[in-house]
Protein backbone atom coordinates (compact mmCIF):
# COMPACT_ATOMS: atom_id res chain seq x y z
CA UNK A 1 0.00 0.00 0.00
CA UNK A 2 1.39 3.42 -0.97
CA UNK A 3 0.44 6.91 0.16
CA UNK A 4 -1.00 9.51 -2.18
CA UNK A 5 1.96 11.64 -3.35
CA UNK A 6 2.00 15.40 -2.89
CA UNK A 7 1.88 16.11 -6.63
CA UNK A 8 -1.32 14.09 -6.99
CA UNK A 9 -2.92 15.78 -4.00
CA UNK A 10 -2.05 19.09 -5.64
CA UNK A 11 -3.50 17.91 -8.94
CA UNK A 12 -6.73 16.72 -7.31
CA UNK A 13 -7.20 20.07 -5.57
CA UNK A 14 -6.82 21.96 -8.84
CA UNK A 15 -8.66 19.47 -11.05
CA UNK A 16 -12.00 19.98 -9.34
CA UNK A 17 -11.85 23.68 -10.20
CA UNK A 18 -10.42 23.27 -13.70
CA UNK A 19 -11.78 25.68 -16.29
CA UNK A 20 -13.39 23.86 -19.21
CA UNK A 21 -12.51 25.21 -22.68
CA UNK A 22 -15.53 26.60 -24.47
CA UNK A 23 -15.44 23.93 -27.19
CA UNK A 24 -15.70 21.21 -24.50
CA UNK A 25 -18.54 22.76 -22.49
CA UNK A 26 -21.53 20.38 -22.22
CA UNK A 27 -24.84 21.51 -23.73
CA UNK A 28 -27.71 22.51 -21.45
CA UNK A 29 -29.28 19.09 -21.97
CA UNK A 30 -28.72 15.90 -23.95
CA UNK A 31 -25.59 13.86 -24.45
CA UNK A 32 -24.69 10.41 -23.13
CA UNK A 33 -23.19 10.33 -19.64
CA UNK A 34 -19.77 8.68 -19.58
CA UNK A 35 -16.71 8.50 -17.34
CA UNK A 36 -13.01 7.65 -17.61
CA UNK A 37 -10.62 6.54 -14.86
CA UNK A 38 -7.34 8.44 -14.61
CA UNK A 39 -5.55 5.91 -12.41
CA UNK A 40 -2.11 6.96 -11.16
CA UNK A 41 0.19 4.60 -9.31
CA UNK A 42 3.76 3.92 -8.25
CA UNK A 43 5.33 1.50 -10.72
CA UNK A 44 8.78 -0.03 -11.22
CA UNK A 45 9.90 3.11 -13.10
CA UNK A 46 8.28 5.64 -10.77
CA UNK A 47 4.84 7.24 -10.95
CA UNK A 48 2.70 6.06 -13.85
CA UNK A 49 -0.79 6.20 -15.33
CA UNK A 50 -2.95 3.39 -16.68
CA UNK A 51 -3.82 3.56 -20.39
CA UNK A 52 -5.46 1.14 -22.78
CA UNK A 53 -5.09 0.72 -26.53
CA UNK A 54 -8.57 0.22 -27.91
CA UNK A 55 -9.14 -2.68 -30.29
CA UNK A 56 -8.74 -1.88 -33.99
CA UNK A 57 -11.83 -4.06 -34.50
CA UNK A 58 -14.01 -2.01 -32.18
CA UNK A 59 -16.60 0.58 -33.12
CA UNK A 60 -15.64 3.12 -30.43
CA UNK A 61 -12.43 5.01 -31.22
CA UNK A 62 -10.74 1.94 -32.85
CA UNK A 63 -7.02 1.58 -32.17
CA UNK A 64 -6.86 4.74 -30.07
CA UNK A 65 -4.99 4.96 -26.74
CA UNK A 66 -7.35 6.04 -23.97
CA UNK A 67 -8.14 5.97 -20.29
CA UNK A 68 -10.33 3.02 -19.27
CA UNK A 69 -13.94 4.11 -19.30
CA UNK A 70 -17.33 4.13 -20.97
CA UNK A 71 -20.98 4.97 -20.55
CA UNK A 72 -22.67 5.41 -17.17
CA UNK A 73 -25.17 2.60 -16.56
CA UNK A 74 -28.21 2.96 -14.25
CA UNK A 75 -26.67 0.65 -11.65
CA UNK A 76 -23.37 2.55 -11.44
CA UNK A 77 -24.61 5.26 -9.13
CA UNK A 78 -22.81 7.92 -11.17
CA UNK A 79 -19.49 8.53 -12.94
CA UNK A 80 -17.23 7.15 -10.18
CA UNK A 81 -19.00 3.79 -10.18
CA UNK A 82 -18.98 3.72 -13.98
CA UNK A 83 -15.26 4.50 -14.22
CA UNK A 84 -14.35 1.77 -11.72
CA UNK A 85 -16.63 -0.80 -13.36
CA UNK A 86 -15.34 -0.07 -16.85
CA UNK A 87 -11.72 -0.20 -15.66
CA UNK A 88 -12.31 -3.61 -14.10
CA UNK A 89 -14.05 -4.90 -17.23
CA UNK A 90 -11.41 -3.58 -19.61
CA UNK A 91 -8.18 -4.13 -17.64
CA UNK A 92 -8.97 -6.45 -14.74
CA UNK A 93 -7.96 -3.80 -12.18
CA UNK A 94 -9.26 -4.54 -8.68
CA UNK A 95 -11.46 -1.58 -7.65
CA UNK A 96 -10.90 -2.27 -3.94
CA UNK A 97 -7.28 -1.17 -4.37
CA UNK A 98 -8.24 2.14 -5.98
CA UNK A 99 -8.58 5.33 -3.93
CA UNK A 100 -10.73 7.90 -5.75
CA UNK A 101 -9.55 11.45 -5.10
CA UNK A 102 -11.96 13.58 -7.11
CA UNK A 103 -13.92 14.06 -10.29
CA UNK A 104 -13.07 16.72 -12.84
CA UNK A 105 -15.68 18.94 -14.54
CA UNK A 106 -17.70 17.26 -17.27
CA UNK A 107 -16.28 17.52 -20.80
CA UNK A 108 -18.42 17.26 -23.93
CA UNK A 109 -17.23 15.33 -26.99
CA UNK A 110 -19.37 16.57 -29.85
CA UNK A 111 -18.43 13.85 -32.36
CA UNK A 112 -19.62 11.06 -30.04
CA UNK A 113 -22.26 13.08 -28.11
CA UNK A 114 -20.67 12.00 -24.80
CA UNK A 115 -20.56 14.01 -21.58
CA UNK A 116 -17.36 12.62 -20.04
CA UNK A 117 -16.42 12.96 -16.37
CA UNK A 118 -12.71 12.22 -15.69
CA UNK A 119 -12.26 10.45 -12.34
CA UNK A 120 -8.85 11.01 -10.71
CA UNK A 121 -7.63 8.13 -8.55
CA UNK A 122 -4.58 6.68 -6.79
CA UNK A 123 -3.66 3.00 -7.07
CA UNK A 124 -2.97 2.42 -3.37
CA UNK A 125 -2.84 -1.40 -3.81
CA UNK A 126 -1.78 -2.18 -7.40
CA UNK A 127 -3.18 -5.31 -9.05
CA UNK A 128 -2.21 -7.17 -12.21
CA UNK A 129 -3.80 -5.76 -15.38
CA UNK A 130 -4.31 -7.12 -18.89
CA UNK A 131 -6.59 -6.76 -21.91
CA UNK A 132 -9.58 -8.23 -20.08
CA UNK A 133 -12.06 -7.45 -22.86
CA UNK A 134 -10.33 -8.45 -26.14
CA UNK A 135 -13.24 -7.23 -28.27
CA UNK A 136 -12.71 -3.73 -26.89
CA UNK A 137 -9.07 -3.58 -25.79
CA UNK A 138 -5.89 -4.70 -27.59
CA UNK A 139 -3.42 -3.92 -24.81
CA UNK A 140 -2.99 -2.28 -21.41
CA UNK A 141 -0.01 -0.15 -20.38
CA UNK A 142 1.22 1.46 -17.18
CA UNK A 143 2.91 4.45 -18.78
CA UNK A 144 5.58 6.14 -16.61
CA UNK A 145 5.02 9.85 -16.03
CA UNK A 146 8.73 10.36 -16.80
CA UNK A 147 8.11 9.15 -20.36
CA UNK A 148 5.06 11.36 -20.81
CA UNK A 149 6.89 14.52 -19.74
CA UNK A 150 10.05 13.71 -21.72
CA UNK A 151 10.25 16.55 -24.30
CA UNK A 152 11.48 14.04 -26.89
CA UNK A 153 8.15 12.20 -26.66
CA UNK A 154 5.97 15.26 -27.14
CA UNK A 155 4.60 16.67 -30.39
CA UNK A 156 1.67 18.62 -31.74
CA UNK A 157 -0.52 16.65 -34.17
CA UNK A 158 -2.58 18.39 -36.84
CA UNK A 159 -5.84 16.92 -38.11
CA UNK A 160 -6.71 17.44 -41.82
CA UNK A 161 -9.42 19.83 -40.58
CA UNK A 162 -6.59 22.16 -39.54
CA UNK A 163 -7.00 21.70 -35.79
CA UNK A 164 -3.86 20.77 -33.87
CA UNK A 165 -3.44 19.42 -30.36
CA UNK A 166 -0.83 17.92 -28.03
CA UNK A 167 0.24 14.30 -28.46
CA UNK A 168 2.65 11.82 -26.89
CA UNK A 169 4.73 9.04 -28.47
CA UNK A 170 5.14 6.45 -25.71
CA UNK A 171 5.31 2.67 -25.45
CA UNK A 172 4.73 2.22 -29.17
CA UNK A 173 1.55 4.30 -28.98
CA UNK A 174 0.60 7.71 -30.31
CA UNK A 175 -1.60 9.24 -27.63
CA UNK A 176 -3.66 12.04 -29.17
CA UNK A 177 -7.10 13.65 -29.17
CA UNK A 178 -9.16 13.84 -25.98
CA UNK A 179 -6.84 11.61 -23.93
CA UNK A 180 -3.74 13.63 -24.82
CA UNK A 181 -5.51 16.91 -24.14
CA UNK A 182 -6.52 15.76 -20.64
CA UNK A 183 -3.05 14.33 -19.92
CA UNK A 184 -1.45 17.57 -21.07
CA UNK A 185 -3.62 19.65 -18.74
CA UNK A 186 -3.24 17.42 -15.67
CA UNK A 187 0.53 17.09 -15.99
CA UNK A 188 0.72 20.88 -16.11
CA UNK A 189 -1.62 21.24 -13.13
CA UNK A 190 0.48 18.77 -11.14
CA UNK A 191 3.62 20.78 -11.83
CA UNK A 192 5.22 17.85 -13.66
CA UNK A 193 5.37 19.24 -17.20
CA UNK A 194 8.82 19.91 -18.66
CA UNK A 195 9.41 22.54 -21.36
CA UNK A 196 8.88 21.06 -24.83
CA UNK A 197 8.81 22.29 -28.41
CA UNK A 198 5.19 23.15 -29.17
CA UNK A 199 6.30 24.26 -32.64
CA UNK A 200 7.05 20.62 -33.49
CA UNK A 201 3.89 19.98 -35.52
CA UNK A 202 3.24 16.77 -37.46
CA UNK A 203 0.30 15.62 -39.54
CA UNK A 204 -1.95 12.94 -38.08
CA UNK A 205 -0.54 9.67 -39.52
CA UNK A 206 -2.70 8.14 -42.30
CA UNK A 207 -3.19 4.83 -40.43
CA UNK A 208 -4.49 6.63 -37.33
CA UNK A 209 -6.67 8.91 -39.45
CA UNK A 210 -8.11 5.88 -41.25
CA UNK A 211 -9.08 4.21 -37.99
CA UNK A 212 -10.49 7.44 -36.57
CA UNK A 213 -12.72 7.88 -39.62
CA UNK A 214 -14.45 4.59 -38.75
CA UNK A 215 -15.50 5.84 -35.32
TrEMBL record:
It holds the Pfam family NUDIX. Keywords: Hydrolase, Magnesium, Manganese, Metal-binding. Gene3D superfamilies: Nucleoside Triphosphate Pyrophosphohydrolase. PROSITE patterns: NUDIX (PS51462). One of its GO terms (molecular function) is metal ion binding. This is CoA pyrophosphatase. InterPro entries: CoAse, NUDIX_hydrolase-like_dom_sf, NUDIX_hydrolase_dom. It comes from Nonomuraea terrae. Residues 68-77 have a biased composition (Gly residues). Its cofactor is Mn(2+); Mg(2+). Residues 58-77 are annotated as: Disordered. The keyword Transmembrane does not apply. Residues 30-170 form the Nudix hydrolase domain.
Amino acid sequence: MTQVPDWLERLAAQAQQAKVPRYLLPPADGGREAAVLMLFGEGPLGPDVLLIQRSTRGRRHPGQPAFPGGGVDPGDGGPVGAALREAEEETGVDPTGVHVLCTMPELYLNHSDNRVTPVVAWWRVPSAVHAASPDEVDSVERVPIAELVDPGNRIMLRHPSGMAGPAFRVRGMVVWGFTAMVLDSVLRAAGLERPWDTARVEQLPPDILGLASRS
